[in-house]
Design a protein that fits this description.
Belongs to the acetokinase family. By secondary structure, the protein is an alpha/beta fold. It has 15 helices and 14 strands. The longest helix is centred in the last third of the chain and has 25 residues. Bound molecules: adenosine-5'-diphosphate. Adenosine-5'-diphosphate binds next to helix 10 and helix 12.
């Protein structure tokens, strides 16, 4: 059984062709800089197939052109998608609103609703829709399945999902906390429970997904009860380029002082977070700058860790009993310093990291807490593509 997974962003498409049961990936790649000016010879598609890497250079005018080229690369690599017998195409869709909370077979009606939800996710849903439309055209007869980033948080308790604003206004404009990165939080929490040899229903967990975007979640007995991202992916933790939590008064202040909505949007989504504080949004570079005494890099790091610890503390109290804390995402999986600083000095709360285990580089799920740490601390690689492929396969599998 083969599933093609597509994650379409505003100027990129990430894809993977994989076997959902075994997780074997037969090809993967990235189309980047869609719709941008690109000089001749500049790489815009990196395709990793059976025959190694193929690089496509030159401009990609739009998503449809990009996907067509990708299909050509698959064929050139001996894996023609039209004849591969795809069981499904699985699409990452960022916002499912109140409507979608489980993997959903895409019909024209479903697609129209995803498009309507664009007002809640203007940076993401329109690109997801374009990716789906292209795939529907290029793969007639192959079931298309949408897997929503918000789904895992659909059942957040009312107290966790409600903002304390006028209830009528909130209802009118869809203002509530939805949460994002749900596919990753669900997958990683399942892996963490399995690592401990327990059922998800029997464990309480905190999952910290730290990548370019970053979010945390509190999970009680397999169900998400809180998460750091809110109505949009801007709330919560400090991220590579996003501010995370702010006093909402700051936005009013900026607007009163002449910044318009588009400028504030760019400021908070693309020019804030680690980048806004230090000019750097990649953690490897940030660590190097901190070591060379860069004070702005140090402050950015300290603000990042401060916010992370704030939420870890909140979730420890909210859950009451926590069995496992898990780090995932590019930063969570790779930065031992972030993991150590996030949980340092919490022995009295039952958390004791083993510095040696924490420094071991290991690409599979592993434990980094001391054997007598009451709360286990794990590193678990996330794999959203596999989770999407499995969700799509489960939906279309007969019986
Ligand atoms: P995305 O949110 O885009 O999926 P990832 O989860 O891939 O991002 O995380 C990307 C980030 O992971 C990079 O910006 C970088 O800061 C961080 N990262 C990757 N490798 C390392 C490393 N070896 N050490 C520290 N940070 C790393």
């Amino acid at each position: 059984m083969l599933v093609l997974v597509l994650n379409s962003g505003s100027s990129s498409i990430k894809y993977q062709l994989l076997e959902p049961d075994s997780g074997t990936v037969s090809a993967s790649g990235l189309v980047s800089r869609i719709g941008e000016d690109v000089g001749p010879g500049e790489p815009t598609i990196e395709h990793h197939g059976r025959g190694g890497e193929i690089v496509h250079t030159g401009p990609i005018p739009d998503h449809a052109a990009g996907l067509k080229l990708v299909f050509g690369l698959f064929a050139a690599d001996g894996q023609d998608l039209a004849t591969a017998g795809l069981a499904a195409a699985g699409h990452r869709v960022v916002h499912g609103g109140e409507v979608f909370y489980r993997p959903t077979l895409i019909t024209d009606e479903v697609l129209a609703t995803i498009r309507d939800l664009s007002s809640l996710a203007p940076l993401h849903n329109p690109a997801n829709v374009i990716g789906i439309e292209c795939a529907m055209r290029l793969l007639p007869g192959v079931p298309q399945v949408a897997v929503f980033d918000t789904a895992f948080f659909h059942g957040l308790p009312a107290a966790a999902k409600t903002y304390a604003v006028d209830a009528g206004i909130a209802a009118k404009f869809g203002i509530r906390r939805y949460g994002f990165h749900g596919t990753s939080h669900e997958y990683v929490s399942g892996q963490a429970a399995a690592f401990l040899g327990r059922r998800p229903e029997d464990v309480n967990q905190i999952v910290l997904h730290l990548g370019n975007g970053a979010s945390g979640s509190a999970i009680r007995a397999g169900r998400a009860v809180d998460t750091t991202m809110g109505m949009t992916p801007l709330e919560g933790l400090v991220m590579g380029t996003r501010s995370g939590d702010l006093d909402p008064g700051i936005i009013l202040h900026l607007e009163r002082n002449g910044l318009d909505v588009a400028e504030i949007d760019v400021l908070l989504n693309r020019e804030s977070g680690l980048k806004g504080l230090s000019g750097i949004n990649d953690f490897r570079e940030l660590h190097a700058h901190m070591e060379s005494g860069d004070a702005a890099a140090r402050l950015a790091y300290d603000v990042y860790i401060h916010r992370l610890r704030h939420y870890i503390g909140a979730y420890l109290i909210e859950l009451g009993r926590v069995d496992v804390i898990t780090f995932t995402g590019g930063v969570g999986e790779n930065s031992s310093q972030v993991r150590f600083d996030a949980l340092a000095g919490l022995e009295r709360f039952g958390i004791a990291i083993d510095p040696q285990l924490n420094d071991v580089r290991n690409r599979s799920a592993h434990r980094i807490s001391k054997s007598d740490s009451e709360i286990a601390v794990l590193v678990v690689p996330t794999n959203e593509e596999l989770a999407i492929a499995r969700a799509a396969a489960d939906l279309v599998r007969p019986g």
